[in-house]
Records
---
Amino acid sequence: MSDLNSSHSGLPLSPFYSAEGDDQNAPGVYPYTRGKRLPRPGQSWILRELSGEGTAARSNQQFKSLMAKGQQGLDIIGDTPTMHMLDPDHPHAVHAVGTQGVSLCCRADFEELYRDLPLDELSFSQSLPSVPGIAGLYLVAKERGVPSEILRGSAIQLALYEDDCSYSRHLPLKLRMRMATDSVEFAAKKMPKFHALLEDTYFFSETGLNSVEEMALGFVELRYYIRELLKRGVDIDAFAPRIGILLTCRMDLFEEIAKIRATRRIYARMMKEEFGAKDPRSMALTVTAHTSGLTMTAQQPVNNVARGGMQAVALAMAGVQAMEISTFDEAYRTPSEEAHMVGLRTQQIVQLETNVTKVSDPLGGSWYVEDLTDKMEQSIVAQLEEIEALGDIGELTEQGYFRQIFNNAMERLSRDLSDGTVQRVGVNSHQIPNAEDHMLKEASERKTQPFRDQIAHIKAFKQNRDFEKSKQALGALYDVVRDKNTNMMESYVAALAADATIGETAGVLRQAYGQKYDPLGNLPSPLDI
Amino acid sequence: MQKSSAPIKVLVTILGLDQHEVGAMAIAATLRDAGMEVVYGGRFNLPPAVVNSALQEDVDVIGISAHSWEYLHFLDEIIDGLKAAGMNVPVIIGGSVVTDTDKADILSKGVSAAFGPTDTPAEIVAEIQRVARDSRT
């Protein structure tokens, strides 16, 4: 293999290229179009794959096995009940425990999840409800004597669109916003290296949004959070250095690259000129990516490996801080062990064999890519301004304005696939009969059975805990949440520490905002209110 | 109006904690475009609620949209519930997670039709029309 600064044939390479004498148009220089920073020689993005399955203990084993294969950070996704903030013993959860992510319900689960993992070394990205996710990591670090100041990772914040896009928790918007901003404010103080404000444009783009809509809506949400935090008197430079965007990557590779470049530029200008950030780190956006599940097909699943490979190259050229690759089984399930291996190896091949990591922003200066970047920037900003001109963003959400955008996108994609406007190999071109479509089919279709033992386990846990202590902590949480001026996070951590469950805390939060404890049934509240 | 000439009435519903509503809304729109009447049950339904809606709304077909594996486990309870209520309403299942192997399994359990990600809207409409027609005669 060639050394760090040359091509395979030994031709010398610069860390980046620009017009002669133009030092300003470089990665790591405002407005950061060309990258957050110039990587150190040999440095690349964080390799990771979305993981978490079954119990916390089983997921912990899964993490260790991924790390043994070269994964450098974790992205932990909760199972459906966890995402919903319901306990495994809720009647609706019975067939969903642990099948599409890890089941997390209480302090002991978080302890198991992070057991033996180096909290001071690894980066823990959480595709979890942010309040319990951040509280759980913070609590385990505290128990293990690890200073929270050195914890790294991220938490997705989904407050604005979650009800419209399949992450419904039955929490009123005002409460969801409070949870987002409380957790960001808490992390800015206690976990300053942790990206607690990760704007997740991936999940809502899976409705079928195009790249312009994805980023326009992403900026709408991100700006909504930022304004809320500023209204509280939090200094912009106290939390902005740890803002990130987790975006998707579709198959129009140049458009996706232009999107990422334009996003960094829009963000930098917005933070400096509009929100008055002074710290350069507040202007240099962290971008992480998960390749689009929507571009992956159930037909001929092996073809998805090729798609993931191309998307990984595009993301590497765009310059991202971390990536996850959807692979062959994406149309059917959260990644299997085999799919994890393929995703990780895809990233490693791009990283170690293709030389794309040698030169930052290799497409910078291309007439095509620069023009597309400018046009993406203009289109994203135009749509963002158009939406914000309509009025209060919270009201728009509650009126279903965004839901309509997502629904329209879904219908548009379905129509485009039917009439062939969007070409998809194996779906509307180059199809093969089902009977002949067996490569990787069996592995893609394999199912994870519900971990129903966990239901009994949690029931026993609830029986055996010091319930008075849990109840007291839940009561204190209720009081703090009712008082709209106090950050709930310390009380939330205390409730988890006192063995209250995520489902109970969510129910009490709902009650504090005048809602029913159990949104889907009739479970009684542990509090006499 | 005679039931045999009335539009086909379909309950479109999602079970358990299956969060994904996109497919259900898409199929509801497709069925409406094909002239059917859709009772949209939305998300977060357990089997007793599904049986009850089917009974109250007097639907011709119960359509379950599935984007998680939960439906495989709820299915027996729905079919038993319909029997216990003395109802002879056909159940069909469609969704991104329904594989060919699943189709064979659930058809043997008494489901009238099953659709996976490779089936087209036109095929789904035609099959629902057939199932409803058979059920009415």
---
Amino acid sequence: MIDIQFLTVVILISVGISTLVFKKNIIKIVMGIEIISSSINLFLISLGYREGSVAPIFTNAPSVKMVLPTPQALTLTNIVIDLAITALMLSLAVLIYNYYGTLSMKKWRLVERCS
Amino acid sequence: MEVGREMFIIEHLPALVIAIPLLAAFIAPLLKRFGKHAVSVWSILNLSIVECLVIVLGYRVIKDGIQSYAIGASIPSLLSPNGLPVRIILEVDAISSFMGLTSISIILLACIYSACFMKKYKSVERYYSLLLLMAAGIMGMAFTGDMFNMFVFLEVLSISSAGLIAFYAYKGEAIEAAFKYLVISSISALMVLFAIALLYGQYGLLNIAALGAAFRFTILDKIALALLVSAFVMKCGAVPLHMWVADAYGEAPAPISASLVVASQISLYALFRICFTLFGLLPAIQIIAWFIILFGLASMFVGVTMAMPQKDIKRLMAYHAISQTGYMLLGVGVGLAVINDINALNAFGIAAMEGGIFHIINHAMYKGLLFLVAGAIIYRTGTKNLNEMGGLGNRMPITAVLFLIGMLSITGLPPFNGFASKLIIYESVFLFNPILSVVAMIVSILTLASFVKVFYSAFTGQEQSKYKDVKEIPAIMLVPLLILAFLIILFGLFPGIILKLLVKPAVQALLDRAGYIGVVV
């Protein structure tokens, strides 16, 4: 019996990695990183989930069971960091587009010089 | 009152070392209204304060043992009230303070150098702001005792470094380099986070020391170990994921290239911390150690062979940085390979680790010097291409001598510091496996060959008419170079003292797994 959420995590990470490896468009690469990051968020959240429990924000909780708060804190932190990374990467993508007029990696100067 | 304040500073030392650059980074842009100099003076001032605090902290670590600090606790020294650590804990032992001292010294010198080097650019306040953030990230990674906190500081470091690499935003290459760096570092950070999630899912712990005590070495732990090792090897710029190093170091402003060297080395520290403290007792750690040794060998060889044909002075030095990282991986990897064999450890393992750790500080110094000298050449001539340089030795004699010092040091000739650490690595690794040692020596010779080429094409030869007006660099840029050159010669002349003072405590701290864990649990 495989937990469906962990299977989803594995599938999403493989999709993200294959995007990173096979795509040449840098917007797609940013998307690949985002997919990996979201799947790790899903993994963290599903680690802390307990069936039938409440959010860990009550003083007088209606039921005794609560989900784990730490993975949610980790996820929140990762979402914030992810936002910063994505914003920075997309702004770099804008600059690259302004400079080279294309989003394809094949046309980059450093790539050409090295190959 | 005076005594009270002193006690306050000493009690909160580990937190202050991270907090001061972090807060100073956000104040720096506000100071622009007082002129550009105000920002640089502010950054230099803050980094000097941090440097002093790190020295005091290091002194206390040597004197009183491991220093620890629970963030946000009413009594910071109270780490685990109910037997389990609940807060983020900073834990400073000898290796952390060694790395902290190395990094902050290089960043401080780079900052002094930038005061003149970056003067002509308009948005320097952002530059200093990011530089201070980078310092905060490095100090955080060195001093934290918490896995997730390490991930956060890794991201702080990556984002600020990417911003700095892209500082010459009018050049497409710099943007490319920053993008590449950002892709690599965010992937490695996500791998770290995934490994943290795997560990948290099993043990419910994030603290490194508590995790180390609770380990059961399940299959998931091994997956986490593989993820962590590959992430940090990726981030420290070892072959096979070295391609970002050449671009990032080559395209960043020269003082940033020098700071990036220590930023990569802090990932090496994280790698060693994970391998020794978390997984030190794992029976299969030898396999990981062999992987680290092979990564080291590949880095040494590929780095130096790729450096040979380069025409861009900074790109060439960046490939040498990869190659030198290999020496550190080799030295410490050999120590890790024999960690469970006490006889071999005493015979050559500890010596190999001392060589590797000593090489970290030596590499930070001479590579910092070389990058700053390259920056000086670019500052005066405006070109990075070695073919366009020539005859600069007459015009910039002090720079030429400083370059010579750095060059002889990186190739491992006596009496410079590179010789001291490389000799220890050769001798100890020879006892482990002679072939590894032979490869290391061949790489050293190739390094010499490649740097001789740089020296000849930049400083000797016919003077070119277009460089008639080239002068020696300004005094404020010479100061950090002279300090580095002085330290290189000092470390080369008295390696025994430095080993005893700095390196041996650091290696002992890395091996003293029980001591690190015992502080928290």
---
Amino acid sequence: MRTLLIVDDEIGITDEVKSFFEEEGYQVFTADTAKEGIQIVSQVRPDVLLLDMKLPDMSGLNVLQIAKAISPATKVIVNTGYVDQAIIDEAAKMGRDVFLQKPFDLMVLWEEVDKLFRQTPGPPQS
Amino acid sequence: MTMLSFSQMLAFIFGIVLTIPVYELLRRWLTPILTRVSRKKHADYQKLLKDASRSMSKIENLAHLFSLVVHFLTFRVGIRQVAIFTRRKDAEGFWLANQRGYEKNFLEYQMDDNHPLVQWLHEKKQILDVQLVADQKLTPSKQLDMRASKIRTMIETMKDFDAVCAIPSFFGSELKNILFLGRKKSEQRYTRDDWELFYNLAQEAAVAIENANLFDETKQKKNELKIINDQLEYSKSKLIKALQETERANKQLQDAQAQLIHEQKMATLGRLAASVGHEVNNPLTILSMNVSRAILKFRKDPTLKVADIMDVFQKMEQNISRIKAVVNTLTGLLKKSEKGKFEPLSLKLVLEETLPLVQFQTYLENLTGTEVAFEIPQSIPLVRGDLERLQEVFLNLFINAYHAMVGKRNRQITVKAERASDEEGFVAVHFSDNGMGMTEEIQKKIFNYAYTTKPPGKGSGMGLYMCKYIIELHGGTIRVNSTLGVGTTFILTLPIHAEPVAKHLLQKQD
């Protein structure tokens, strides 16, 4: 089964994503803090990580870095509601696979996640 | 002796008798000629004096003047040696001004005021004949005590200069110059006419010399004045330049201040924009997800009734309200920022409205996990202030507090408001944190322009400076109380917004 981890402090978002993807047959994990998120990454090694750049206890960039270190196979989709070009560039350098600007649609998210699974393993997308 | 014959004796007597009338005739014939000759000589001398006088009056240069006198006497009058001594302005005594006809150069020769010659000439006011001195036939003098030593000195000096006479040159009653004249080239003796000529020449020379002196002085004074004038002009131009520099610097300062305010405004707007980005995009995301889910549900089961997915619509409504609230606040804030005027404000609301902005900022810097407590009683009156500016102040204070508490456990910020105890008509707001605190030194400087305790690049040092500027603009005060290692409290005062009516009543009560 495809596993997906979403790390976002907005409960409204995690609830919707969880409900949706579970209906599509994914196993979904959620975390609303960076710490929790990292923990789950190391435990579960999810296929896809949906990561909010702005988290209460740690910078999303840090989480990205750690996640890529712990679980290199995990594909990472970063998202943010705030356009900070520096963070966006930094995330790209750190090897995120996809960048989404909030607000994004469930359909868009679903398509991006699916694309990641259709990809052959290779270097991260730019 | 042989006896003269009678005829010889007669001839002799006759000759003698004749000689007398002949002599008389001769005399009568010669005298006019002789007189004419002497008168001519006298006239010549007069002409000489006139010529000399005219030449001297034309010369302005002192050195040339001395040279002229000396040349005149040696060439036109024909004297072998001439030396002039003159009294200098800045020194005592008489110094050699010019000489001619001598083998030796008497450059530094000096006669001081006590020299017997000087004293004699000054007293007698006449030409001194060296012969008289040598023959000790000097006229007795009341003032001068003509002892042998003095006479010897006089002779020695005149001998030095091969002088036949010493001529004094007076300007008024002051002895200004002394001329030494040697023998005539023609070896003739000096006549009374000569003495007269020389004496008059000497007096005229004194006048000419004084004039030349004055002329020199005037020229010098003119030069000095010009130098002073030039210096003044230079100083003036420097002053003008300095003034211009000051004006320029002043303008630069004003520009810098305007820039600063603008940047702060931009920063605030930036923060607001960031707030928008976050505060609005999250609910929008949820909203869009709500809509997606509803659509999917309907696609899967077209028979679905609205009642079945009412929960989705309710969630949508909630999020729409959330967005609306954020937009309203931000619009209100942005509207205010255009005018920047003072109006009645509720401290509580302003502070509470600032907090989300703070929380966003601190999220970016991983500074959350802090407890913020507001202790603002309802009885606190409205304050008079500029909403946007005050928000900047509070934002700054909050963020500073956050930064101070990095690394600490149980981080807490308390904002307390009360009526100022020491100031009538003001509200005091206490911003306390339990961060690292500040030293006495830092406390003194913390409001200074461009003073920061952060590492380079992290802090501009302008935050608290702007806070102070803004609070003082409001008519309030801001100060800091801090204990190193324990925490910091910023205390600021803001004026209470007094209603005109109430003020009027208060006045009446007085």
